[in-house]
Design brief:
Layout (H helix, E strand, L loop, with lengths): L1 H5 L3 H18 L5 H16 L7 H23 L7 H9 L4 H29 L14 H26 L3 H17 L10 H4 L5 H12 L9 H7 L11 H11 L3 H10 L10 H27 L7
Length: about 325
């Protein structure tokens, strides 16, 4: 391999390493990432898929779950890909390896993996009976918009993980760091934890934040009914005050006059999120931020490996 690298240009070296990664996919069991991602996708869609695109609560939890699947797939794809062959990289770098070619090969390879995982995830969602909308925002087809979004989320997490793999020394350290990366993404996604002050500023550097905003906007979150208030009131139907059941009387009146759906829609209007507006500009902004994350972390991977010869660890 060293002699093959010594006199090759960057494009040729990229091709050499791309073929190496393809062989590792087949012979080193890297293909096992695909059925694992299918299993995770199946479990998640089985749990939350029923109310996705139907209510604000169901859409939010479903989109958050899909973002979690994408983040997990991306992290798992590349967390060990560099550190497991760190001594080899150091030796070949001294023999003429261009780090840009090495990272470019990984980026192409990981891109292919992320595309496959996105297709698998969409297929599993379809098999689970999730009824996707038909009309897209950026493209004429909703599934294309949704697929691009999930791919970018997965790929952004993948590049973050690639950077960590370029930084740490061995696979044990990499697998130790990965849960903390995942927790950081989920906490600072702005989903279930309300962030204020300086903590809120960290949201913008997470793929989960832009991914959640992207999927919720595409899913038309703001124009869906909110059912939490109605479900809470319904639990108190048997409450008696002065020998009467006023909540039961009110809910019965609403049901008998077919006012429930309108009330749920009105409740949704009081729960609007300006980040989830279904507009092309909002979607493109999220895509752009995910692309920025991809480029920044890929460049950081190159920078970290350029100094691999000085690594005395």
């Amino acid at each position: 391999m060293n002699e093959a690298l010594r006199y090759r240009g960057r494009a040729a070296q990229t091709w050499i390493y791309l073929k190496k990664l393809a062989r590792m996919f087949v012979y080193h069991n890297d293909w096992k990432m695909l059925p694992m991602s299918a299993l995770i996708a199946g479990l998640v869609t089985f749990a939350v898929g029923g109310s996705l695109f139907h209510t604000q609560e169901g859409t939010f939890s479903g989109c958050f779950a899909l973002v979690c699947v994408c983040i997990w797939n991306g992290f798992f794809n590349s967390i060990q890909s560099v550190c497991r062959e760190r001594p080899v990289i150091k030796r070949e770098h001294r023999s003429g390896l261009h780090i840009t070619s090495y990272i470019a090969a990984h980026m192409i390879y990981q891109m292919a993996l992320c595309i496959l995982e996105t297709v698998i995830l969409l297929f599993i969602c379809n098999m689970a009976g999730i009824a996707f909308p038909t009309e897209g925002v950026i493209t004429p087809v909703f599934l294309v918009d949704y697929g691009i979004s999930m791919f970018l989320i997965t790929y952004a997490a993948d590049m973050m993980s690639l950077m960590i793999s370029s930084l740490v020394r061995n696979t044990t350290t990499a697998m130790t760091v990965m849960p903390f990366m995942l927790i950081f993404q989920l906490i600072f996604s702005g989903g279930f934890v309300k962030l204020e002050g300086s903590a809120a500023n960290l949201k913008s550097i997470t793929a989960a934040k832009w991914g959640l905003q992207n999927l919720c906007a595409l899913s038309d979150y703001n124009n869906q009914p909110m059912v939490t208030l109605w479900n809470t009131i319904w639990k108190f139907r048997s409450l008696e005050i002065g020998g009467q059941q006023p909540i039961k009387m009110m809910t019965d009146y609403i049901a008998e006059n077919n006012m429930r759906d309108q009330i749920l829609l009105e409740c949704g209007k009081y729960n609007l999120n300006p980040d989830y507006v279904k507009e092309a500009g909002n979607i493109l902004h999220c895509w752009g931020m995910l692309l920025v994350i991809i480029v920044v972390f890929a460049l950081l991977s190159v920078i970290l490996l350029e100094f691999i010869d000085r690594d005395k660890r």
